[in-house]
Amino acid sequence: MAGQRAEGAAVRAVAARFREVNGDHAMTPADDAYVNRQFVELGALCHKVGRDPDEVRELMSARLLPLPSYLRSDGAEMVPADLFALADAAGGPDRLRAWFVGHWSDPDEGEQEWDAYLSGRYVCLHTVSPATIRRKGELVAAIEAALAAADSDSPAPAASLSALVDELDALEPDFTDYDRLRFGGPVSRDTHITALRTHRPPVEAQ
């Protein structure tokens, strides 16, 4: 009985922190279907890899592992299938922060990205790692710079922009409407991929 109460408390603590970070937005059936395709239930993942889900929840609450990416409409904690990959690469959750932040030359930037990683809101990448986080930032900046310098009569900038958009497209999943609610508007796929392909069709390779 005590174990059941402890597990319930851990579940409630993670759910409360998740809603504190993301707001309290309802998940629709379409949101649930998207999340089921892209993520796995925390309990199922822990069973698969031999970890105790309650201990993992405690690591999340202690800011040693990221929060779930989504809470499905039935309350299930949905996480990436590679949730533990970075902690394993770092040598354990206790070493993850230093390992993670060390991938940025600016420690302040690294700490900001660490906070973002812990929030569980890096659902904008198929695979979350310091390398993919940095590359996404570089691509978004490069796309915006290309747009600012673009000359509609010059095919070279347009071709370069198309290649940047294609690379960003390969990094990012589709997102779901829930994401647009919790992020308060369009997501990067909307603004830096879909909109550009709608208004600036890709240039065919010469």
Broad structural category: mainly alpha
Give the spatial strand order of the biggest sheet.
1-3-2
Number of helices: 11
In total, the number of strands is 3
Number of domains: 2
Tell me the strand percentage band: under 5%
The helix-strand sequence is: HHEHHEEHHHHHHH
**In whole angstroms, how far apart are the ends?**
69 Å
Task: Compute the average pLDDT.
Answer: 90
The main sheet comes to: 3 strands, antiparallel
- General shape: globular
The rounded Rg comes to: 19 Å
Helix content: 55-70%
Low-confidence stretches are: 1-6, 201-206
Structure explained in plain terms:
This protein folds into 2 domains: 1-114, no CATH class; 124-206. Helices cover 63% and strands 3% of the residues. It contains 11 helices and 3 strands. The chain has helices spanning 2-22, 29-38, 42-49, 53-61, 85-90, 93-101, 107-118, 130-149, 155-171, 177-182, 188-199, and strands spanning 40-41, 70-71, 77-79. It has a 3-stranded antiparallel β-sheet. It starts with a helix and ends in a 7-residue tail after the last helix.
Keywords:
206 residues; mainly alpha; 2 domains; three-stranded antiparallel beta sheet; 11 helices; 3 strands; 3% strand; disordered N terminus; disordered C terminus
Summarize the topology:
Blueprint: H1 2-22, H2 29-38, E1 40-41, H3 42-49, H4 53-61, E2 70-71, E3 77-79, H5 85-90, H6 93-101, H7 107-118, H8 130-149, H9 155-171, H10 177-182, H11 188-199
Helix pairs in contact: 1-4, 8-9, 9-11
